[in-house]
Amino acid sequence: MDDLEAVLSRVRDRVVPEPAERDHLRTVAAELAERTRAAIADLPVDADVVQVGSTARGTWVSGDRDIDLFVRFDADLDREQLEEYGLAVGHAVLPDGHEEYAEHPYVKGTHEGFDVDLVPCHDVETAGDLVSAVDRTPFHDAYLSARLDDDLADDVVLAKAFLKGIGAYGSDLRTEGFSGYLTELLVLELGGFVPLVESARSWHPPVEFDPEGHAERTFDDPLVVVDPTDPTRNVAAVLSAANLARFQHYARELLAAPSEDPFEPADPAPLDAGDVRSHLDRRNTTPAAVVFDAPDVVDDQLWPQLRRSLDGIVRGLNKRGFDVLRARAMTDAEGPDREGGGAKRAALYAELEVAERPAVARHEGPPVAVRKHAASFYESYADDVDPETYGPFIDGDRYVVEREREFTTVREYLESDAAGDVALGAQVEREFAERDVLVGDAVATLAPAFGVPLREFYEPHP
Amino acid sequence: MDDLEAVLSRVRDRVVPEPAERDHLRTVAAELAERTRAAIADLPVDADVVQVGSTARGTWVSGDRDIDLFVRFDADLDREQLEEYGLAVGHAVLPDGHEEYAEHPYVKGTHEGFDVDLVPCHDVETAGDLVSAVDRTPFHDAYLSARLDDDLADDVVLAKAFLKGIGAYGSDLRTEGFSGYLTELLVLELGGFVPLVESARSWHPPVEFDPEGHAERTFDDPLVVVDPTDPTRNVAAVLSAANLARFQHYARELLAAPSEDPFEPADPAPLDAGDVRSHLDRRNTTPAAVVFDAPDVVDDQLWPQLRRSLDGIVRGLNKRGFDVLRARAMTDAEGPDREGGGAKRAALYAELEVAERPAVARHEGPPVAVRKHAASFYESYADDVDPETYGPFIDGDRYVVEREREFTTVREYLESDAAGDVALGAQVEREFAERDVLVGDAVATLAPAFGVPLREFYEPHP
């Protein structure tokens, strides 16, 4: 078994950026900042430029190529103008860029092989004066920059590489993992990567850290890290219970048997149709998938809607007796290499234990003793009213009937209006109306487009 | 719609015994009593004879042919001798009779077309001195004989005919209905048949009557009638919630739309195999039956065991995901004409909504945070230990695996030792070991032998 320090040293060699990579990034960032200042000069208002994020603080994982530049306008500038000027600067700096939307619209593009975000914000005095959430970023940057020395910065890079490797890095709403800011705060708070994993090994959620000791409220999340720049905010609010558990699991594994493996992203190859069929043979489940065009929205809008839809469908299936063994929302744009690539199709995928129910369903009436209700129940089902119903008969102290079941197959349900009514987000709802329903081996046709999430589904690991 | 009094008058004409029937019964009973006294004279101890039951009190339904004679021995006679002398007298009076067993063994036989029970008991001073439960019967007889006038006696006959008609008469442990004594006490307490059904119409169980106002304990039964001869006993203890509900249902129907129908026992014709198959087609369920030799015990021993076995099997099926829609214990000796005829075969019959499950089953482990349990769960399922298991993976805050399911078909379960282990009575357990399992259309072969309970199952009514 390798020694932990030896393992981390090898990982550090690989993931901590070399001086040449740092110099190159610094040069490109300076050039972009200069171009941004030139574009600002063409505006009728003043603004400044600040580089933020891990590339600003030297805490990026070698090979990451993200440069984040914030354009700070006066705190009094109204939102509409801020958006207009922000986009004007963005398009000027990144002529091939496109608009995306976080709190404000902003321009995203590439420059010399780097992914560049050019985001407008308000230059507020303190975090208490925030106009919108993005205004907070420069405060985060200042807080960390003042506290992370070179050793801690290297440990942040280790921690990020570890979280990426285990699939728990990223506060986007598909991943629901650890944000960069959260990772840096945890390394800072615990005093390094090894102290962090040693601590995480025995966490009992809810776990709370409050670096500045200034929390102004309580939080209902499994991990709470009170934002040092905002006493009302949990930096770990997006983190799912599963990703926290995943971090604990791999922290224990790393300490028990040090290895470079968890620092290597899995990058699963897509499953092909034959693989899917052989899993189905082995498992003898009935799979069902509702497939539809992915609405053209960013992942942070798409995924919460997909999850809500999946929950609704799973609830609907279970309620009608089509017992769900396991389910997952999927898109054809998943996998480390395709993140943010923009999904064309989405699928709500469920494996069922039961795909068919009888023609009749039990329906319990009131206790016979509850005279008024009992009489009205009995009369509404008596022989001459509904000859297709079995009963009413008496079971225990109640009337019971066996009446025609609404949905006897999973396909009937998934194609019905009832399935269309489950809680669906606005954009998904429109596309869902045009859904295709696949039941049984037909789901194999989802591979290879959905091959990566299918592999994660059929080869699940912590 | 017929007038209630007109209906009851016609029913009374049919069910209240005519003078000729009464005279004939009285003659035969007197002759049997005389023969009994002669047999007693051959014993080394003294005893007397008392006729008990409805034929003694003139409250039998016309056509019933039961004569119950109790042989009362001295209260000090020990049990063994009482049994020996009792059987000696019984066999002397009824040379073709056979022995049955209630509290003591006794002789049952026929004489001039009557079914005769010759039961030994102790002649105790008061009900408080009872040696065994049968000793109580003469007290019941004395209590009712002193209080039922001719009109009330006729109403008792009406009530019994009604309860027989709706299938709720008889305190045997198959029927779990109203005993004769309970029926007579209720008619006496409420003051007649019509007041009884008018009262029953709006009962809210638990309902309690205490004619002598001397209850010495509380009871947990839906209907409580405290025995006038024993303040610690509920005469309705055997009555099931279903039969009480059934009585309320038909009481309401009778008062709302008077008719002679409920006074006519249904006497269902046995279902044939084709009928069973067409119900299965219509319902699209999967039926399963466990069939075995009925142990050679009286119904009052058989039926509680069958019910316990059925409950155990239903619980076992549901627990393994073979969802039971409806189930029933059956014998090939059911139906009004065959009561007590001695079953040859018994069946635990269940209709399933689900008869097959996948090869894998979800198994939840502990939360990952519970370090010690979590680690031991993870290690016991890790890849290199069990390559056939899916996972362990993380779902929410827990480890989860999908491992091989123990029983994937209902037949596997029903034929397994696990099904043999469900709570079974001693005598049923032996026969159950040699069970046949029928699944699907094969259950149709149970008809016509089990045709009467099959009709009740597939044409259920209150």
UniProtKB/TrEMBL annotation, chains A, B:
Single GO BP term: RNA repair
Residues in Polymerase nucleotidyl transferase domain copies: 40-139
Other known facts: A single active site specifically recognizes both ATP and CTP and is responsible for their addition.
Residue intervals of the tRNA nucleotidyltransferase substrate binding domain: 154-263
Annotated catalysed reactions: a tRNA with a 3' CCA end + 2 CTP + ATP = a tRNA with a 3' CCACCA end + 3 diphosphate; a tRNA precursor + 2 CTP + ATP = a tRNA with a 3' CCA end + 3 diphosphate
InterPro entries, alphabetized: CAA_C, CCA-adding_arc, CCA_tRNA_nucleotrans_2, NT_2-5OAS_ClassI-CCAase, NT_sf, NuclTrfase_I-like_C, Polymerase_NTP_transf_dom, tRNA_NucTransf2
EC nos: 2.7.7.72
Full protein name: CCA-adding enzyme
PANTHER family: CCA-ADDING ENZYME
Function: Catalyzes the addition and repair of the essential 3'-terminal CCA sequence in tRNAs without using a nucleic acid template. Adds these three nucleotides in the order of C, C, and A to the tRNA nucleotide-73, using CTP and ATP as substrates and producing inorganic pyrophosphate. tRNA 3'-terminal CCA addition is required both for tRNA processing and repair. Also involved in tRNA surveillance by mediating tandem CCA addition to generate a CCACCA at the 3' terminus of unstable tRNAs. While stable tRNAs receive only 3'-terminal CCA, unstable tRNAs are marked with CCACCA and rapidly degraded.
Lineage per the UniProt record: Archaea, Methanobacteriati, Methanobacteriota, Stenosarchaea group, Halobacteria
Residues noted as binding CTP in the record, renumbered to the chain: S54, R57, H140, K160, Y169
Binding site for Mg(2+): D66, D68, D117
Obligatory cofactor(s): Mg(2+)
